[in-house]
Amino acid sequence: MARHIVARTSDIPLGGNKVFGVEGRDIVVFHVNGEFFALLNRCPHEGAPLEKAACVARLTSPEPGVYQRSRVGELLRCPWHGWEFDMRNGQSYFDPKRVKVRSYPVAVESGEELQKGPYVAETFPVRVEDSYVIVEV
After folding, report:
1. Could you report the per-residue pLDDT of 90-106, keeping only the tens digit for each?
2. Which of 22, 31, 80, 92 lies 20 to 30 angstroms, CA to CA, from 56?
3. Which residues, other chains included, contact 75 with Cβ-Cβ below 8 Å and sequence gap of 6+?
């Protein structure tokens, strides 16, 4: 799996998302609770763009009349038909063995940690003799 640098962390605001074209695929990167998650920008049901999905919380009920919210903003609700997916792994809740959204690993690294690119500018030796700068070509 090849690494692709898609954005600076400041390009995706907290609670927001941004779509990137990577190797012919639209991948949406979400910034939720200080973490970044990347998913294929397509609902497996009918292809709705997940960049338009609502980011909701997990809601559980230990007993009638009592509701608990957790993982706020980490679940996606498809904008067309309401199918829900876990942002961490693309898993659906209604049919977790068969239906999921493709997810991709995300890493945040400083510029110094990134691999050097393939492009190199041509350089020439420089030396100083007396008060003259001499370039050797």
Report:
1. 999 888 889 999 999 99
2. 22
3. 55, 56, 57, 58, 84, 85, 86, 87, 93
Q: Which amino acid is at 130?
A: D
Q: Structure tokens of 88? A: 């961490």
Q: What's the pLDDT tens digit per position in 33-86?
A: 999 999 999 999 999 999 999 999 999 999 999 999 999 999 999 999 999 999
Percent of residues in the chain assigned helix, strand, coil, to nearest 5: 5, 40, 50
CA 9 – CA 80 distance, rounded (Å)? 29
Which 8-state DSSP code applies to residue 110? -
CA distance 66 to 136: 78
Please give the distance of CA 120 from its chain centroid, rounded to a whole number.
28
Angstrom distances, CA of residue 20 to CA of 65, 72, 104: 42, 24, 13
Strand 132-135, strand 54-63: pairing: unpaired
Is residue 22 within 8 Å of residue 28, measured between CB atoms? Answer: no
Is the pTM value of this prediction over 0.90? no
